[in-house]
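To illustrate the input format used throughout this study, we show a single complete record. The first block contains the structure-token representation of the backbone; no residue identities are included at this stage. The design step must infer an amino acid for every position from geometry alone.
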């Protein structure tokens, strides 16, 4: 009997036994194995329109998008990697459904209702994705929604104590030259308080220097001599900033300009024991104005050389301080440009401690107080509340944490313990953790903060389309009252008033009826009366409502001041004698107020009306018109302080050639008792484009301290250590952490008092102490670093709920933290059912943010980009899973070992004897 053996099969057997690739020798075909079944991938062919519509409809019908039982494979269950393949295709199909929803939302002409439906289905799908990946569905590898890294470090941090305070630039050039700012009567006092409560007062009067020139170095020497004589340890120093050269291009050639002059600032070098409080014996009212400076010209104003005729294309937001002291050589104390991320400064308000608050909208990261780390925002625009001291130094910044927001109203309580911010935002949650009726719809909000920047409470005011809160005022008991509007149809809105207790509990909401005009442009509270002012039916109308023990206020009085013409109402305020002050602009020179203190001129004038508290016509009523030096004058904001009325706005000026408009800013002080104009200042900016938006007054804010750039009030060297004061975090924000040891995600909730130390403890406990949480210090900043304790630990960071996700504000990313974050996937997954030869496990990140939203066009584009990347990652995972790894080990690469060559030769000789023929 003849036995036939295919030598290639025998060689293949020994090749595999030796760890080599199977031989490519020919086969007779008599004993060849049956071909393995091939799985058809979901991306093998482009999806049809019908398939896309089916996925979208399934999502809209709330069907699960990630359902392994509905995923069909064409290979038998006994096939290697069958389970992981099924789960991977489930992931791909679910991501495809989310991409189809985003694609539909990106369709031109889609209605707001359709977009709302798609966003709802998309939000549910994202939540399903998070739940699906959280179940660890894969056995051969891991997939995280976000990124994979060996560690993560927060960008939110806190400032370390430096015990120094540096002023703005006070002098330039020669340090021995006389500093103009030091001229005149410069007097102030410094109270130094120790922890025991004992204190010493040091007085300074530059007149004591006699004939000594008031140069930077001489003034510093004088200040320190006073400090030494008083027996205190704090000292003053001058800080040098070297002048630098700059480069410009002229006709294609780079020209380096000479270095600018050196600059000098004053620095206080304090310590941890001495608390410093500055004051001055004489002072005047300080006026703070927020404004836009500069305006990019329209395309029509750009010449053929592409150079604006005005030469100005820079727009900046500014905080300007003016003094009303008539002896001052110039009214302007400083003009500080706000952070470059500030899109527009909305309003400003004075703090009783000498500081000033600024409400602004920011379009990017901004400074968190004096900390260099950025205060990140969740969306394209957020609302920022910033506190400055009287010298213009930024103390802290707090953001709302909205996915999209616009600030509209700002108020400070009489005792300064609370600051209220209002506006319109998307993604803002109430204190009870509940989202507004539609989390994707812009909603009116009111948020209250304390003087450290910590949020006290926050409420969504209404859930109707286009809702916004325009004005806010405090009651004497800390209660908060707001005025807002909800869009009804095009050009028509429903005005409303709402009230909240000091703790944030809603007390009433009453609707004033639909209007096509801004019915409420100003809001004020005096005792039991709530005052509104605005334009109704083309007239300036002031109304008084009687506040009730419970329920909505009752309208008690109305005063119509007459037609406003082309003007508007800037706001309303309560003076210290209880009179009602309303201001705005009009081209009607005959408003219905009897006593005119400053007469109307021509064109549009600003106006200030002081009315009796009852709103009934009275002999004490006064009216004053104001026209700046130029053309039409319009008022944009009003406030009262020290019994005086202050307004700010614009004065139209002749524009430069090629520019459509130009305007100066102005501030005016009016005596409401007589209507007389008692002080005013008109100022311009780059390109003659000043647009004041807010005004605040500190009755004692301008003094000799201004000459040295020193702030009124107490300097606190020890920075606030809470996370809420140093980031965009809000109390109640959350994220979760899961390890491969527990398999259960544990929630970490941010509390109002949390610091880096307390958060590190929370993270360690939530991770079952399987992570190392270190507080690292870089320069003047401390942050947290999270690292697994060993290579066997896998840590997953999971995003918190929509509107309360703490990860973005912390600067952390949802995803996987493993020490082998860069391990090659092929070496870990294996092939053909074989177990990996290494303990490493492949880890993949989809690079997705679980706060994705289709609420805005930018959000839709972002979602499409992230989903596209995630789908590509899924395909790569499948390719890695089905690609046989190159074998490794001795003898695999390079020449075949001699012992193996001899062994194969013996097998071939045996085959010759068995078959009677040589092998090929």
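Output of the design step:
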């Amino acid at each position: 009997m003849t036995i036939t053996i295919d030598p290639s099969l025998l060689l293949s057997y020994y090749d595999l036994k030796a760890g080599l690739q199977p031989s490519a020798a020919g086969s007779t075909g008599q004993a060849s194995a049956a071909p393995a079944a091939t799985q058809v991938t979901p991306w093998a062919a482009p999806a049809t329109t019908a398939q896309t519509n089916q996925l979208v409809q399934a999502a809209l019908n709330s069907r699960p998008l990630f359902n392994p039982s509905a995923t069909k494979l064409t290979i038998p269950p006994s096939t290697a990697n069958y389970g992981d393949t099924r789960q991977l295709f489930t992931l791909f199909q679910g991501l495809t459904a989310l991409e189809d929803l985003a694609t539909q939302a990106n369709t031109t002409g889609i209605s707001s209702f359709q977009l709302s439906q798609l966003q709802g289905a998309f939000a549910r799908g994202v939540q399903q994705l998070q739940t699906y990946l959280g179940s660890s569905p894969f056995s051969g590898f891991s997939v995280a929604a976000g990124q994979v890294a060996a560690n993560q470090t927060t960008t939110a941090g806190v400032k370390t104590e430096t015990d120094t305070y540096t002023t703005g630039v006070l002098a330039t050039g020669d340090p021995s030259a006389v500093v103009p700012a030091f001229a005149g009567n410069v007097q102030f006092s410094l109270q130094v308080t120790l922890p025991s409560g004992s204190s010493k007062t040091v007085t300074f009067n530059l007149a004591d220097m006699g004939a000594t020139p008031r140069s930077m170095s001489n003034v510093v020497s004088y200040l320190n001599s006073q400090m030494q004589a008083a027996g205190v340890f704090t000292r003053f120093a001058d800080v040098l900033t070297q002048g630098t050269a700059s480069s410009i291009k002229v006709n294609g050639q780079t020209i380096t300009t000479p270095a600018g002059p050196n600059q000098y600032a004053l620095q206080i070098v304090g310590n941890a024991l001495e608390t410093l409080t500055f004051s001055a014996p004489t002072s005047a009212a300080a006026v703070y104005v927020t404004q836009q400076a500069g305006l990019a010209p329209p395309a029509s104003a750009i010449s053929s050389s592409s150079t604006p005729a005005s030469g100005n294309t820079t727009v900046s937001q500014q905080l300007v301080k003016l003094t009303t002291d008539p002896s001052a050589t110039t009214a302007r104390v400083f003009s500080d440009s706000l952070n470059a991320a500030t899109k527009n400064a909305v309003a400003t308000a004075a703090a009783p401690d000498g500081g000033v608050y600024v409400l602004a909208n920011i379009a990017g990261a901004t400074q968190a107080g004096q900390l260099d780390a950025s205060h990140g925002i969740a969306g394209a625009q957020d609302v920022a509340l910033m506190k400055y001291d009287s010298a213009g130094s930024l103390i802290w910044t707090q953001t709302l944490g909205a996915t999209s927001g616009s600030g509209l109203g700002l108020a400070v309580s009489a005792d300064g313990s609370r600051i209220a911010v209002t506006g319109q935002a998307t993604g803002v949650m109430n204190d009870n953790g509940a989202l507004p009726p539609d989390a994707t719809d812009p909603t009116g909000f009111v948020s209250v903060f304390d003087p450290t920047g910590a949020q006290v409470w926050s409420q969504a005011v209404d859930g109707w389309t286009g809702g916004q809160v325009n004005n806010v005022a405090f009651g004497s008991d800390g209660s908060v009252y707001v005025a807002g509007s909800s869009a009804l149809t095009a050009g028509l809105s429903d005005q409303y008033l709402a009230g909240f207790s000091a703790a944030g509990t809603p007390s009433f909401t009453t609707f004033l009826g639909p209007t096509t005009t801004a019915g409420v442009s100003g809001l004020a509270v005096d005792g039991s009366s709530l005052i509104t002012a605005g334009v109704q039916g083309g007239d300036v109308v002031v109304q008084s409502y009687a506040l009730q023990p419970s329920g909505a206020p009752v309208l008690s009085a109305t005063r119509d001041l007459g037609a406003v013409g082309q003007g508007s109402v800037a706001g309303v305020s309560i003076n210290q004698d209880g009179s009602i002050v309303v201001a705005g602009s009009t081209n009607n020179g005959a408003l219905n107020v009897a006593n005119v203190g400053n007469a109307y001129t021509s064109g549009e004038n600003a106006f200030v009306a002081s009315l009796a508290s009852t709103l009934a016509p009275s002999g004490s009523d006064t009216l004053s018109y104001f026209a700046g030096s130029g053309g039409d004058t319009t008022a944009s904001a009003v406030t009262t302080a020290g019994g005086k009325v202050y307004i700010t706005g614009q004065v139209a000026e002749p524009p430069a050639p090629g520019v459509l408009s130009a305007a100066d800013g102005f501030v005016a002080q009016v005596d409401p008792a007589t209507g007389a104009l008692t002080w005013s200042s008109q100022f311009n900016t780059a390109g003659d484009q000043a647009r004041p938006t807010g005004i605040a007054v500190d009755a004692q804010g301008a003094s000799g301290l201004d000459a040295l750039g020193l702030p009124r009030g107490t300097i606190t060297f020890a920075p606030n250590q809470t996370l809420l004061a140093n980031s965009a975090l809000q109390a109640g924000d959350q994220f979760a952490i899961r390890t491969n040891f527990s398999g259960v995600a544990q929630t970490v909730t941010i509390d109002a008092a949390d610091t880096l130390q307390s958060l590190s403890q929370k993270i360690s406990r939530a991770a079952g102490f399987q992570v190392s949480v270190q507080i690292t210090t870089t320069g003047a900043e401390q942050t947290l670093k999270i690292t697994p304790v060993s290579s066997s630990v896998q840590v997953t960071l999971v995003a918190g709920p929509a509107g309360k996700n703490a990860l973005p504000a912390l600067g952390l990313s949802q995803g996987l933290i493993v020490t082998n974050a860069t391990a090659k996937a092929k070496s870990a997954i294996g092939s053909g059912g074989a177990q990996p030869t290494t303990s490493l496990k492949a880890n993949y990140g989809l690079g997705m943010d679980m706060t994705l939203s289709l609420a805005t066009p930018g959000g839709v584009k972002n979602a499409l980009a992230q989903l596209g990347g995630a789908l590509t990652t899924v395909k790569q995972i499948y390719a890695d899973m089905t690609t046989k790894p190159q074998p490794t080990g001795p003898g695999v690469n390079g020449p075949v070992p001699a012992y193996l060559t001899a062994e194969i030769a013996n097998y071939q000789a045996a085959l010759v004897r068995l078959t009677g023929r040589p092998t090929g």
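Structural context for interpreting the output: The domain at 54-150+820-882 is CATH 1.20.1330 (f41 fragment of flagellin, N-terminal domain). Residues 1-35, 297-313, 369-374, 823-840 have pLDDT under 50 and may be disordered.
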